[in-house]
Amino acid sequence: MQIEVKIRGLMVDPHSGTPVVILKDVHSDMLLPIWVGAYEANAIALEIEKVAPQRPMTHDLIRNLITEMGIQVERVVVTELRDSTFYAVIEMRNMEGETLFIDARPSDAIALALRADCPIFVNDEVFRASNRKSEEEETEETAESGDEEWPDVIGEVGDLPM
Question: Would you state the torsion angle of the CA atoms of residues 57, 63, 69, 70, taken in this order, to the nearest 10 degrees?
């Protein structure tokens, strides 16, 4: 089963300094953090804030190419969590109505989804795998470093617009 999500926040992991995109299930309080690169985080942030660069960025270029070829981005899906790495696909439909699935990093897929104004989904198994991994890491970290927690940067803010 696939769960529709929205971007709930974009923050920096206080332990590693790596950007994290927080995805939230639209029908529950389940959250999925995905660590992303700085460039991809910037591309996501620019689109969330509706900042238009003077020249097309890479994700804008990809959207423009797809559109000019008569292809529509239907949705993106975070499909798998394997060895601490997330996987995703971009689901598109060509002019003949054929569905195309393109392998992508979740960060790139999310950046494109924002530009194409299409929904983002996560396979429910990814949520389960992420929760299992988080619980294991929490147990290890608590034993090593005490009770240090992430700052609450999400707060009471509603879902970010897509």
Answer: -160
Cα 81 versus chain centre, distance:
13
Whole-model pTM? 0.82
Range of the domain at 132: 2-145
**Euclidean distance between CA atoms 37 and 99, whole angstroms:** 29
HEC-encoded secondary structure of 19-64: EEEEEEECCCCCEEEEECCHHHHHHHHHHHCCCCCCCCCHHHHHHH
Q: Which run of H or of E encompasses 110?
A: helix 106-116
Q: What are 65-71's contacts with CB under 8 Å, separation 24+?
A: 66/92, 66/116, 69/94, 70/94, 70/95, 71/95, 71/100
What are the tens digits of pLDDT across the range 34-50?
A: 999 999 999 999 999 99
| Amino acid occupying residue 150 | W
Q: Based on the structure, what is the number of domains in the chain? A: 1
What is the rounded distance in angstroms from the CA atom of residue 4 to the CA atom of residue 83? 23
Q: What is the CATH number of the domain that holds 46?
A: 3.10.690.10
